[in-house]
Amino acid sequence: MKKQQAARTNGKSAEASRSNRNPRNSMKAGNKNRKHDSVQIEKDIPGVPVAKNDEVIIDIIGMNHDGEGVGRAEGYTLFVQGALPGEKVSVKVLKTKKQYGYAKLLNVLKASPDRIAAPCPIYDKCGGCQLQHLSYEGQLAWKRQHVVDALERIGKLNVASSMGENHTSELETVQAAHHAGNSEAGNHVDNKASSASLHEITVLPTLGMAEPWRYRNKAQVPIGVTDGGLVGGFYARGSHRIIDMETCLIQHDKNDEVVTRVKAIARRFGISAYNEETGRGLLRHVVVKVGFRTGEMMLVLVTNGEEIHHVEEWIAAIRDELPSVVSICQNVNTRKTNVIFGDVTRVLWGSEVIYDYIGDVKFAISARSFYQVNPVQTEVLYGKTVEYAGLTGKETVIDAYCGIGTISLFLAQHAKEVYGVEIVKEAIEDARVNARLNGMEQVTFEVGASEDVIPRWKEEGIEADVIVVDPPRKGCDPRLLETILEMKPERVVYVSCNPSTLARDLRVLEDGGYRTVEVQPVDMFPHTVHVETVVRLTRM
Ligand SMILES: C[S@@+](CC[C@H](N)C(=O)[O-])C[C@H]1O[C@@H](n2cnc3c(N)ncnc32)[C@H](O)[C@@H]1O
Asked: What residues flank ligand 1, with Cβ below 6 Å?
């Protein structure tokens, strides 16, 4: 293991190990920078070599799943937002816990070759993106490595080395400590994953975007009030203070334009902005959706009450200034909550839905319906899913956790029949509408939990050649994995938004007789820490 340097900036040595020194004594001797010493010392944690407000120099040895640099101060792990692997940085300790702490980046003393100046002027204030200070190539490499680490550490899978970038043995330990007890993959994973696979699996380079900006088709902008009047933009990092924003570099520019104009129109008509503390004021959120292929746009005004003064003038101004908007809706949310939408939605003007395409499949998108926010990469992800499903037109396919049926409809173009199951009733209603819209009759959708419905389908005699799963972050329910093993489909395609739970579930499938053949990370959300992966498994 590489020895880490950690030196206090006042020049005192920090060589002593955590176990053989008295941290309290060393704190007093070694930290002249610390303010409020008498108060702070009371809070020092025995065995932790740094305390709040200490300034130390550390090497960054990796990056955690939140995009924070991971460094070591005398063996103690510090997470540093904005620091990159390979860098030497000076930091100020913000918070300490027994196993790890957080520190603020003060200076980059030795920069990573992958460090770039973040293109967005508000990157430091807004929490929306986490990786703009890392080159796009660096982001793609990190996302792949993140998947590899999880497969090896949690799934005990044997990943074929490629690209020479497996440098994470120390980081793995760090992540294990960080996740201890609260990992969504669960503690049982490491215990259960006692068997390891000998066969090598291929993890391909992350499929990124040629143009990784302006990729989002949906904006959800909170509206608030400051001394200067109505503002709309984003919540300042870690707070509920709204900062006005003119443009967001990952948002489609038409969405930016609609938000800017709607704010200006609202100010013109003296519309009040919602105040979270008092619960008063009308306009809470402006939600805008755009169909990348069709150019159609929908505007949803989320209001704290039914009545909108001057509503006709509003509509006329929007229609006049924003001809791409073909649907204006109102959603009423009077609850004191962070949840954006309330229960009632009505069309103020125009159509109830806008349309868009992913590949050749047409989708109707309503004010409330879920739709993938990066349609360009969704096509890439689903294309890979269909490829891994290996369809010839004769297969029966089950799509578990099917949402509004996007993957099901993609698969249906190449399969004999597709069964989709999803727990949210409204999503299944949308899925049926979309199946009809595309004239696809060989698709059956059912509302329910995958782990309940699919075993019943099995009892009813449905035999699947391929099962596709695309679960939420917590991964597949164990009963579903059991059912897959009992149904014995030739192929399983696993689409995942969480490498940890993916790795856990792959281990179960491997132990049950499946072989992980190929793993493809896909970058659905450039400049953020989200990692999407699609995996092909075959029955041995
Ligand atoms: C990652 S999304 C996948 C959506 C869809 N495949 C797509 O690409 O749009 C996971 C979906 O699983 C649904 N879900 C969560 N738990 C479920 C369960 N136990 N059974 C079925 N669906 C579930 C969620 O409502 C959500 O729509």
From this structure: 372, 401-404, 406-407, 421-424, 427, 449-451, 470-472, 477, 497
